[in-house]
Amino acid sequence: MPETTRASRNYLSLVVNGRYIKNFQLTKAVIAGYGSKLMVGRYPMGVINIEMDAALVDVNVHPTKAEVRLSKEDQLSHLLSEAIRTRLAKENLIPDALDNLPKRERYDLDQLELTLNKISPKTMPSVQPQQGQQLRENTTTNLADTAAEEPTPAPTSPDLEIGDLDDQPIFKEPQRLAAWDQRYQRLASNVVPTLVADEPEPDISHVESAERFPNLTYLAQVHGTYLLAESGDGLYILDQHAAQERVNYEYYRQAIGEVSNDQQHLLVPIVLDYSAADAISIRDHRDVLESVGLYLEDFGQNSFVVEHHPTWFKAGQEEDTIKEMVDWVLRDGRMTVAAFREKTAIMMSCKRAIKANHHLDDRQARALLQKLPECENPFNCPHGRPVLVHFSNTDLEKMFKRIQDSHESGEMQA
Ligand SMILES: [Zn+2]
């Protein structure tokens, strides 16, 4: 699951027709399926077991035969990303506040690492769940069925059985998943409006509250940084910056995807000077810059002039914003339009989000809580940090010794 991660890709294993393989593109596809649910620089752990027509696999590429060549690699990659994305979209990914404490998490990860090291690649597909946090995205895909296969809902896949998830503390309400599915499809095309205090709020009153997301009642703000909220199943603490970053991000991702001719003219054009090499690189990447509505016109040998910019730029920060975006393509010469748009959306959502130590009034706090469940992924900020953590009623009762913990004897001593 997205909250159990490692700093390298090496904990992600691919098995094709029972053989442990390495394939960079498929690994990338798995990570892409997680999207912003992963922290920046963190990678998922797990075993992806793929069964496909043997005729599509050429094992003779690398002497160790770990690197195989696959026909239809692109389709398979797409299928993998979509299957993981669809599956994760169904989950309530709010970390339990107590599980999230570093002490306990380290314990779980060490145990899991030990388990992984002991297992030889051959036996990996049949790894049985151990205690503690587990990753079970064991996505089985039959490539022969590519054309017919839609990303399948969980209940039909034996490895992703919903009932199977019952014992995991974070999935508290599997019965709500079906309701969420319906809602998710309705909302997929909706734009989530930004929450900025000085802008009028568009009317979105007809969007139902999310079923997988708790119905939060705002309680209070802490240190101008966190929001406290309650629902029937416990207490929630939200990071207000992460929450608003998420709301903004989904808005900008949409706005940036639809490059409109809606441009703001600058009273004073911005002139940017670069080295000769950088100027060449900028000219090479004009298409990427223009994909989000950024137009750099030649202005002498190594200089450019910008006369207008997309309307979603933040007033007063136009020049810094443009320079930052140009830097991205200078630093990564192979940046794709998709990656550039994604970075732009994250940057804008951060620039426009309320910062820590900023006191919201009750109305603003409530508005934020109301917009959050409308997000496609209300659980993480675009950088992958959690938006909210949950103290379940049981957690609270345990903390105050209102109930005895009879069957988890080992964990309650601290
Ligand atoms: Zn963030």
TrEMBL record:
GO terms for molecular function: ATP binding; ATP hydrolysis activity; ATP-dependent DNA damage sensor activity; mismatched DNA binding. Keywords: DNA damage, DNA repair. Residues 218-360 form the MutL C-terminal dimerisation domain. Pfam families: DNA_mis_repair, MutL_C. Residues 1-89 form the DNA mismatch repair protein S5 domain. One of its GO terms (biological process) is mismatch repair. CDD domains: MutL_Trans. One of its GO terms (cellular component) is mismatch repair complex. Residues 146-166 are annotated as: Disordered. This is DNA mismatch repair protein. The keyword DNA damage applies.
